[in-house]
Structures are given as C-alpha cells and as structure tokens.
Amino acid sequence: MITYLQDHFQQTVERFYTHAWLAVLPLVIGLVLAIPLGWLASRYRRVYPGVINLAGLLYTLPSVALFVIMPSIIHTKILSPINVVVALTIYTVALMVRVIADALLSVPADVRSAAVAMGFTGLGRFLRVDLPIAVPVIVAGARVAAASNVGLVSVGALIGVNQLGSLFTEGFTLDVGSIVLLGILLCVLLALILDTTIVLTGRRLTTWQRAVS
Amino acid sequence: MGVIWDYLGNSAHWSGPEGVPARVLEHLEYTFLALAFVCLIALPLGLFVGHTGRGSVAIAGSANALRALPDFGLLVYVVLLISGRLPASLAYLLPSILVLVILGIPAVLSATYAGIQAVDPAARDAAKGMGMTGSQVLWRVEVPNAMPLILSGVRSSMLQIVATATIAAYVSLGGLGRFILDGQSQRDYSQMAAGAVLVGVLAIVLDLLVAGIQRLVVSPGVTGRFRTAGPRRRPVLISSSQEGSVVPTT
Amino acid sequence: MIKFDSVVKRYPDGTTAVDGLDLVAPSGQITVLVGPSGCGKTTSLRMVNRMVEPTSGTVWLDDRNTASVPAAQLRRGIGYVIQQAGLFPHRTIADNIATVPLLLGWDKRKARQRSMELMERVGLPTELAGRYPAQLSGGQQQRVGVARALAADPPVMLMDEPFSAVDPVVRAELQNEFLRLQSELDKTILFVTHDIDEAVKLGDEVGVMRVGGKLAQLATPAELLAAPVDDFVAGFVGRDRGYRSLGFRAAGDLPLVKEPTVPLGADQAEAAREARDGWVLAVDGDGRPQGWVDVRQLRRGATVEPELLHRGGTVAKEDDSLRAALDAALSAPSGRGVIADGEGRLLGTITAREVVERIDAQRNTDEAREPEPAARGRE
C-alpha cells in the first residue's frame, strides 16, 4: 500500500480532493435548498405530507440508479461528475427536508410565543430563534448525510467518475487488496474530517447549549 | 428520455437467464437472504441490549463507526480477500452476501435498541408490577410498542441492501445491477437506464410492502392512527448506516 | 394485612432508603404512608410486591412471607397503581384492564365481561372500551389504572401517588370516587403520597415517615392532627391543624334556628317581609336551599330570580362535621349557616358563634374520650 501511495501520490491526492468536492458540494447545496423546503413543510400543515412523501420516495431510490438516470434528465454525458453532484444533492435534500421540518416543529411553542412577544418577526425570528434551537437535530442529520455522501461518491467510479472510488475499481481489476484498502482508509479519513467539521460548526452555532452544560 | 424504454420494450430481454424477470428474482433472492440474516442477528441482539440495558455503549459506538465505511469499497475488499479460497460457485456470492449482512446490521440493531428503550418506563414498571415475567414484559409490552422503530430499521436496512446488491454486480453478482454494468461495458445506455429504472421500481415496491406490513402489524394505539387531525409524525431514526438510513414515513 | 417486620433497604453505595420499618397495615383499611422526598415511602411500598427487594427484614401478607412466593406470582395477587398510570399504549382500554385476569388464565369472555364491569365501577363510560390510552384524558387514564389493578379482585392494593399527576379538581373527584369504591370493596390498601391533605382525607391510618426511612408516627388522621409526636411531624402536618381537625368531629345535634324562606319567583314584598337583617333564603319546590337574597338590592316590583341569588354560602349536611358547619356559618353572607338533611332539604340555620360554643362544649366533655369519626369529609 505504501509503495502504491508513493508511486501514485499526486493522482491519489487529486482523487481525494475531487472526492471531497463531490461529497461536500451536494451537502451544502442540499442544506441550502432543504432549509426553505423544510420550513415550508413545518409551517403549512397541508404541505407537510406531500413534501415528506416525495422526499421519502426520492430517498428510497438507490443512488446508483439516480447516477445512471441523471444524464437522460439533465442531458449530461454519462461520465460527467455533474451527474453525481445533482443526484447527491437530490439525496441530501430528500434526507434533510424531513430532518429540518421535524426539527423546526420541535421548537417548543412557548419559546416561540416568547420570541413573538419580544418583537421578533418573520425571517428575523426564524434565523435567530427557530433555527438555532433546531441546530442540534440538523447537525445530526447533516452528519448522516455527509457520511452517506462520501460512500456514495465512491460508487461514481462505476460510471467512470475519477475519485477515491477509482481505487476500488483499480484494486479489483489488478487483484491487489491493499489498493482497495487504501481507498477505504482515505474514505474513512474524509468522512471523519467532514464529521468533525460539522460537529464543530454545530458547536459554534449553539454556544448557548454549552454554556448550560 | 425515450431511450430508456428501448431496452425494456424489447421482448427478447424479458426471457431467459439474463432476462428481466430472472434478474429481478436474483436481486430479490440476494435481498431477502441478506435481510434474513440481518434480522436473525440484529433483532435478538437489539432486543437483548434494549431490554437488559447491557452493552448499549458498544452498540452506539460501533453503529457510529460503521457509518464512515464506504459500502462499495468494503464489498470489493472482502471479495478480494475471501473469494480466492472459496469454490467457484460461491466465490462471489458468499463474500457479497457477507458484506450485505454486515452493512445491513447497524440499521436494524440501533432501531431495535432505540425502539425498546423508547417504551414508556411507566408501562414497563406497571407490567412488571402486575406480575409479568421478564420475557412477558418483553414480548407483550416492549416489542409491540417498539414496532414502529423496529420496522423502520428493517425498512432502512432493506433499502440499503437493495442498493448495495445493485453495486455488487461489479463483483460478478447477478441481479439488476447487471443491466447497469453490462450496459456500460456494451455502451448500451438503454440497458443501463433499464437497470436503473428497474432497481428504482423494485426499491419503491419493497418499501411500500414494508409500509403495508407496518400498518397491519402495529397497534393503532401506538401509531396514533385513530387521530384525524394533521400529519402524523412517526419517530425517525437518524442512524449510523449509509444509504437509506433515515426512513421516510408514508 | 400487610406487615413490615424490621424491614431495611440499603443500597450498595451506602444510602439507607428504609431503616428498620415496623408497620402493620390492617386488613380492609387504607393505610397511607406520607412524607417528604427521600423518606422511603415509595421504596417501602415497592418492597411489598418485591419490585424492590429488602436488604433485611420480612414483609408479610397475612401469614405469608412475601419472599417465599415467586415474585411474578406474588404480584398477580396484588393490585398495583402508579402515578403515571403506565397503561399499555398498544392495547385498548378493555384489554388493558383485562391484563391480570388473562395472565392468570381466565376465559377471554369472562375477562372481557370483568373489564366492562370495572369500567362502570370506576365511573368510565363503556364507549371508551375500544379506545386507546392516548385518546383518554389524564383523569380517565388514572381510572383505567385503578380498574386494571382491581381486575383480578386482589385483596391487597398498592397505590403510589396515583392521583398526583392530575389537576386539583380532577384529583378531588378521583379521591372521592376512590373512597366510595373502598366503602364497597373493603380492600387492604397501602397508599403513598407526599400530600398531607390527601393522606388525612383518605387514610384510616396515616404513617408519617422522615428522610432516612424511619417511621415517625403512625396514627389516625384525627390523632395526627391533634397530637403530632414531634416537631418534624407537626411541621409536616402543617398549619391550620386545629381547624382541620374539626373535620373529624361530628356536629351532633346543633341547636338550629328555624329560617324563614321564600320560594323562587316570590315577589319583592314577600321577600322583604320574611327577611331578617336584610337577607332571606330562597328555596326550590322541594325545600332545597338555592341561595341568599339581599332584599336591599331587590327593586320594587321585582321577583326573586336565580340570577339575583347570592350563592356564596356553603351548605352543611346534618351529619357533617363541625368544620362543615362552621364553614357554612362563616361563608353565608347573612351570617347564618345553612344546614340541610340528607336529601338536601333545609333543616335550619346556625351562627358561627353557636358553632364555636358547641366546639368548646365538646372539648370540655371529651378530654378523655376518643374523637368520633364524622362522615368522611368531602371538602
């Protein structure tokens, strides 16, 4: 494994970065899209079942199926990494919409009333009261989404996208287990890095919780 | 878009050992085989840990750790490791099923454990105080009330297995992933797309099946299905495993 | 009968929850254990059905040592009611109630019948039988809890703060119904509460425990109020002891004064004629008091209508306690407390001064005598 790394260092690093981008971009875009959608679902009860069921449906679909179907829907080439990004964004949104909707719904009613009574309105209240309280649950969901994404990006090797998953396919075709193992370890490393970043960001956003404990 | 239907439209593709029905059957076999083992291992373990409270730290820890592993990588690695020592017929099947089972266990295990833990402690106390033995409390009170979470874990696990079994075509397994991979090597996008659609449909159908079972098996007193007002939010487990870990409700 | 014989519960970390408890809860009576948090009352209760195992000492149920019977079997013969009811969410009300009978192997139909019977007994409408606990209110859930404990007709019942989780109005209702039930059933009941008022209201005997698991005093409620054994018990029992102890003394034959009345609908002239000191009592067709009328507020030509009635005064029954009589007198706007018979018909009135004279007279004559229990106060 070490020799492989030495011989292919540059390529491996490039693959690591590509993998990281392909995992993080959908996560961020997905979160950004899921927040308003989740808020809509939590605010308007009639919309909730429809949104949640659609999200559920999308989440049920295996990711590799989405990777393959994407080109025909958005007219990209099959090899293009955009397929992966779009598919994983859909995945992230599908997962996070429900998490965010439920997190917002779980903000205690009396906290909300107090905020309104103090003069917080609309967007201000949402950003400063609801969202911060919902952060811990959202963080938990984001961690799952991040780990999922790292694993799913590697499947992209099957449709020819060059990232850490390519180490799996290379290792398999060459019948060299250590290359595969390298790929696994790097994926785990990436997942851990993302996980830690999310947890730390979450902590930053919930200083009030730390003050209590 | 129409290109998707080219492959499926061709009746030749619906017969024989490489036809659609055969592949669907293979995929179902892998899925149910793996799921059966997952339940066999994870359900009793989850019930035990939930009921007695012992080993809960180990569970939580391992569930989180497994989350970081890439399914695809694990699949390839185990196959490389083991297949050489197996007779040809099992060479790829056994390691693949093994990995499917390993990856499927965390979802069921943590859901079962969480489900049992979430049972109203007052109900548990009352059950014991009324004279139920330990196992009576488990089977008559804890399990029925934990069913929503347990079934959501099974659902989660099943979807993950379906997805990973698709990828397992790469390591020479049959099933619907074959269309995707063969389609790619033959540069036949229509075949790839057919595989993707079939897998998607299968996943949805199986999901609805479990949802149906859920509706039949779980007491209305637990789901709150007697209520008419508003959306019913059932407990969702943010769990450890990768694909398909958080299960939406229908 | 439940008997605690030098029962001790000590935990591995050294805390002593119950320290040498010697207590007899007589058969057919309600014995209440009361005390502050940490006094060991709940632990003691739970040692009767072995939800907690004693470190040393013995708990007897009649002539059986509870440790000699397998725990599950023991518990099936004891009714157990807890604060949060602990109903099974996944079972209907009827199935919840039938739990122990079915555990004991009763025929399903018989168990179902019993459920229905008990629902009526505890005051639940039978339409609720097919509902689930989540569909019931807190008070209803507690009633189901009691019904469930009674299902197999156990001679002994253990109740751990069963009425604490509901609001005061519901709690009073549940307490009254519970007393009614017990008068029909005569079970041996060990009841735990942190509320001294509840203890005094419900208990035939009350055991006050102090932190550290020691029994400070075991006595009837009247004795407890009249003669607390030390400062702790006195403090725990609280203030107004003198006044509250009046609840346990019968009014006896109070010297009632005949009270002039007017029927509802009477005109102002008649009201003015019958009134004494500006107030007249209005009654219905059966002679039941409805309320006081302030004739000075009545306009010429007006009639006595329900909206004009002053309903401030309470009505005491003829067999009620001195406390009820005194309260009737103190609360009546006219200063004359209304006393009625068993059916609620007016017997006469009495002033506060006359009640106090009676209290003094009783005190002087029964220094040595045990106080008579009055009809249990429904305050």
Walk me through this protein's architecture.
- The complex is a heterotrimer of chains A (213), B (250) and C (379).
- The model of chain A has no long low-confidence stretch (mean pLDDT 85).
- Helices cover 85% and strands 0% of the residues of chain A.
- Chain A is built from ten helices and no strands.
- The radius of gyration of chain B is 21 Å and the shape is elongated.
- Chain C is of the alpha/beta class and 379 residues long.
- Chain C is 33% helix and 23% strand.
- In chain C, the strands form four sheets. A six-stranded mixed beta sheet of chain C has the order 6-7-8-3-9-10, with helices on both faces. A four-stranded antiparallel beta sheet of chain C has the order 2-1-4-5, with helices on one face. In chain C, strands 11-12-13 form a three-stranded mixed beta sheet.
- The longest helix of chain C is centred in the middle third of the chain and has 18 residues, at 168-185.
- Chains in contact: A-B, B-C.
- The interface between A and B is large, with 64 and 54 residues.
Question: What is the element layout, followed by pairings?
Answer:
The complex is a heterotrimer of chains A (213), B (250) and C (379).
Chain A: H1 2-7, H2 9-43, H3 47-60, H4 63-74, H5 81-105, H6 109-118, H7 122-155, H8 165-174, H9 177-205, H10 207-212
Helix pairs in contact in A: 2-3, 2-5, 2-7, 3-5, 4-5, 5-7, 7-9, 8-9
Chain B: H1 3-9, H2 20-52, H3 56-67, H4 71-82, H5 93-117, H6 121-129, H7 134-167, H8 177-185, H9 189-217, H10 220-223
Chain C: E1 2-10, E2 16-25, E3 30-34, H1 41-48, E4 56-61, E5 64-65, H2 71-76, E6 78-81, H3 93-97, H4 99-103, H5 108-121, H6 138-150, E7 156-160, H7 168-185, E8 188-193, H8 196-202, E9 205-210, E10 214-219, H9 221-226, H10 231-237, H11 241-245, E11 261-263, H12 268-274, E12 279-283, E13 289-294, E14 315-317, H13 322-331, E15 336-340, E16 346-351, H14 352-365
Helix pairs in contact in C: 5-6, 13-14
Keywords:
heterotrimer, A: 213 residues, mainly alpha, 10 helices, 0% strand, elongated, B: 250 residues, disordered C terminus
